Amino acid sequence: MTTRYNPSISEEPRYQVTQPIDRKAQESILDWLDRMGRLLPHAIDNSQVEAISRKDKGQ
């Protein structure tokens, strides 16, 4: 079996207190997803818009 280096995975002893993750940037998860190109716009069609309008009007 080949051992590969992956910096995002580390191993700590089971009963040792772990160190908190250093947060370098004060950005929200939504900002991070957008910056990484993972945040996609939600597209709805006209039938969904009409259904939402009817629900808002109580019909």
Give a quick summary of the entry.
The protein is built from 2 helices and no strands. It has 59 residues and is mostly helical. The model has no long low-confidence stretch (mean pLDDT 80).
Topology:
Elements (H helix, E strand, L loop, with lengths): L28 H7 L10 H12 L2
What does this structure look like?
The protein is mainly α and 59 residues long. 32% of the residues lie in helices and 0% in strands. The chain is built from 2 helices and no strands. The chain starts with 28 loop residues before the first helix and ends with a helix. The model has no long low-confidence stretch (mean pLDDT 80).
Note the run of SSEs as H and E.
HH
For the report, how would you describe the main beta sheet? none
Helix content: 25-40%
Total strand count, please?
A: 0
Overall 3D geometry? elongated
Amino-to-carboxy terminus distance? 63 Å
Oligomeric state of the chains in view:
single chain
**Which regions have little confidence, pLDDT < 50, spanning 5+ residues?**
none
Percent of residues in beta strands? under 5%
What is the number of helical segments per DSSP (H or I, 4+ residues)?
Answer: 2
Structural class: mainly alpha
Radius of gyration: 22 Å
Average pLDDT reading? 80
Please name the defining characteristics of this protein:
mainly alpha; 2 helices; about 30% helix
